[in-house]
Specification:
With about 240 residues, the chain is of the alpha+beta class. It is built from six helices and seven strands. Strands 1-2-3-5-4 form a five-stranded mixed beta barrel. The chain has a two-stranded antiparallel sheet with strand order 6-7.
Length: about 240
């Protein structure tokens, strides 16, 4: 079997036995894969911090490329050291939320470098911002739909957004139709670019409303999507 090297973004971990972890990752070269990491919890060596949610790591493993079974990691190390994502209380809450979303929606068993680079770049930009990052998760979620296949049709015209069909319209025939004020908020969100924003664009109640809208949009367009457990935490913070 060939040894494969790739970068990967950690999505989730599950303790396996007394000293090991099962780590689910979205890899740059092989898409979604899960690995067994041995010896993470030992008296001499504790390396669990390497596998914090959304960490970017460099890994090496041995298996057949199309093998979907759990394989053992031969080695792993941090590929990029975040300065704030896991230390800032609000940012860390957003990180857990995003990792939970990604666990729910990523089904890719093959490589998707465009998606990988989007995740990598977005997280680095989020890490860099010292303030005015309250809208990040909203911008991240709406832009992620580009890669999931249900990005809203921004060329459509109308004052109401149809959640089911993903476009703006003046007809209110769908049962999953946003109200006019909700549609205005969504249209504003679609115009934002997190890197270019120098201020927060929404107040607390607007962010809360947009978050609920986006979760409903994901529920409609993603199979077996359920509300993330961390959603309540975000609502209880400042979001």
């Amino acid at each position: 079997m060939k040894i494969h090297d790739t970068k990967a973004i950690v999505l989730s971990t599950l303790k396996y036995g007394d000293t090991s972890l099962i780590v689910r990752c979205f890899t740059q070269n092989f898409g979604l894969k899960s690995f067994i990491v041995k010896g993470v919890f030992t008296k001499k060596k504790r390396t669990s911090s390497v596998y914090y949610p959304l960490n970017e790591i460099e890994i090496s493993f041995s298996s057949k490329i199309n093998d979907q079974q759990l394989v053992f990691l031969k080695s792993s190390q941090i590929a990029y050291y975040y300065e704030s994502l896991h230390f800032h209380p609000v940012k860390s809450a957003i990180v857990f939320f995003i990792s939970e979303i990604l666990n729910l929606v990523l089904k890719e068993e093959s490589d998707n470098e465009a998606l990988y680079f989007y995740l990598q770049h977005s997280l680095k930009e989020f890490d860099k911002k010292q303030d005015n990052f309250a809208d990040f998760h909203l911008i991240f979620l709406i832009q992620l739909t580009h890669f999931l296949g249900f990005y809203p049709n921004i060329e459509s015209e109308g004052t109401l957004f149809d959640l089911e069909n993903g476009f703006f319209t003046n007809s209110s025939s769908s049962i999953n139709m946003l109200k006019a004020d909700e549609s205005i908020l969504l249209k504003k969100l679609l115009e934002l670019n997190f890197i270019d924003e120098i201020k927060n664009n929404f107040n607390q109640s607007q962010r809360s409303l947009l978050l609920d809208i986006l979760i409903k949009y994901y529920q409609i367009h993603t199979n077996n999507f359920k509300k993330p457990n961390s959603l309540l935490v975000l609502h209880q913070l400042f979001i």
